[in-house]
Amino acid sequence: MVDSYTRECLALEVDTSLPSRRVTRALAEIMDRRGAPVAIRSDNALNASCFFKEEHTNRINRANAI
Predict the structure, then answer these.
(1) With contact defined as beta carbons under 8 Å apart, do 36 and 11 qualify?
(2) Residue 2 β-bridge partners
(3) Per-residue pLDDT tens over the stretch 20-48
(4) Beta bridge partners of residue 9, listed in sequence order
(5) How far apart are CA 46 and CA 36, in angstroms?
(6) 30 CB burial (10 A radius; 0-12, 13-18, 19+)
(7) Which of 2, 37, 53, 57 is deepest in the core (most CB within 10 A)?
(8) Cα 30 to Cα 26: distance, rounded to the nearest angstrom
(9) Using CA atoms, how far apart are residues 23 and 48, in angstroms rounded to an integer?
């Protein structure tokens, strides 16, 4: 995962297949370290983008509830 503004590599996962749960876990680790992103962009499948947005929204809602 790359920060589009700074071009910093925030996470690097290498495998022949990356299920959405694994990508979401990597995104959650980044969010724990750096906070929630303003936007998430995916150049992969549309359903992955929707899954990320839903997970992102749920995570923000849980954080605000505390």
Answers:
(1) no
(2) 9
(3) 778 888 888 988 998 888 877 777 655 55
(4) 2
(5) 21
(6) middle
(7) 37
(8) 6
(9) 9
